[in-house]
Specification:
Layout lengths: L7 E5 L3 H11 L4 E5 L3 H14 L7 E4 L10 E4 L5 H14 L5 E4 L6 H5 L8 E6 L8 E6 L5 H13 L3 E5 L8 H17 L5 H16 L4 H8 L1 H11 L11 H8 L17 H22 L2
Parallel strand pairs: 1-2, 1-4, 2-3, 4-5, 5-6, 7-8
Antiparallel strand pairs: 6-7
Length: 300
């Protein structure tokens, strides 16, 4: 994969994730075209990005047709998590993009092999899983399908480092990759504790943030086991593992919330009431706090 002097990124989907990815690349000198069939989505994206990056107006373009991806060095799909929709997008992109362009999906857990199945040239297809907010969280999971050429994976890893990201290569294409498997295991146990009345949602989250989260920022779970002592961890697993939540279906408290239309921030209610002034203020502060934390950790 060769690199051109002025590189063009095509982002498929002008929602929150697509906007954040485009913003990241544009701030590092790339040209970015955001492609979305929705007039409303494109206009909303335009207003948001031009307000945030007025100095980069000449590097941003909005289009409705996938044909606009022609000439892109890298294409990142950030459309809804609907396999059939994504496959259709990738099939159309193959007919538009240059043979040496890399096509990536930002899926948070759909099999990369499954998504690559309809492609004629799956060797230039892979996953790039950004975490929300994509322009703040450093880590990106790069997932190759069975046919992805190493040179394309290496190219994407290199590009991500250039734009300030910390990419990790996921060596096996498994559901949820690494981040979401860890995240869902923790969330399942947290919901189980809530269901059992062990503690309130606030207190469970407080434990996660101020005992686990603050430590996880500088010490990963395997590293922490080494620090604690593997013999100690082994002894604890013998009595604790049998008691941990291991259900294979969504927890009842989660299903109840969804059935009631309590989807979280997007609906105003979830495990918390997000319509209160205090919650609205805390939500607005989170990105700024994350940026400060990333900056601090980067100085270590």
């Amino acid at each position: 994969m060769t690199q051109t002097a002025t590189r063009k990124l095509a982002v498929i989907g002008a929602g929150n994730m697509g906007n954040a990815i485009a913003s990241l690349f544009v701030s590092h000198g790339w040209l970015a075209v955001l492609i979305d069939p929705s007039d409303t989505a494109r206009e909303s994206s335009r207003e948001r990005l031009l307000a945030a990056l007025p100095q980069s107006a000449s590097q941003l373009v909005w289009e409705a047709d996938l044909q606009a991806a022609a000439g892109a060095t890298l294409v990142i799909e950030a459309a809804p998590e609907i396999p059939a929709l994504k496959k259709e997008i990738f099939t159309q992109l193959e007919a538009v993009c240059a043979r040496d362009a890399v096509i990536a999906t930002n899926t948070s857990g759909i099999s990369i092999n499954q998504l690559s199945a309809p492609l004629t040239h799956p060797e230039r297809f892979l996953g790039t899983h950004f975490f929300t907010p994509a322009d703040v969280i450093p880590l990106v999971e790069v997932i190759a399908c069975d046919h992805t050429l190493a040179e394309h994976s290496e190219y994407v890893m290199s590009v991500l480092r250039e734009v300030g990201k910390l990419p990790v290569l996921v060596r096996k294409d498994i559901p949820g990759f690494i981040g979401n498997r860890l995240q869902h295991a923790l969330a399942r146990e947290a919901m189980s504790l809530l269901e059992k009345g062990v503690a309130s949602a606030e207190d469970i989250d407080t434990v996660a943030k101020w005992a686990l989260g603050i430590r996880l920022a500088i010490t990963g779970p395997l590293e922490q086991r080494d620090i604690n002592g593997l013999d100690v961890h082994h002894a604890i697993t013998e009595y604790l593992y049998p008691d941990l939540e291991s259900r294979q279906t969504p927890s009842q408290v989660l299903s109840d919330k969804v059935q009631q239309g309590h989807f979280g921030v997007k609906s105003g209610k979830g495990f918390y009431d997000w319509d209160t002034p205090e919650r609205k203020a805390s939500l607005q502060e989170k990105d700024a706090t994350l940026r400060q934390l990333v900056k601090l950790l980067g100085q270590r």
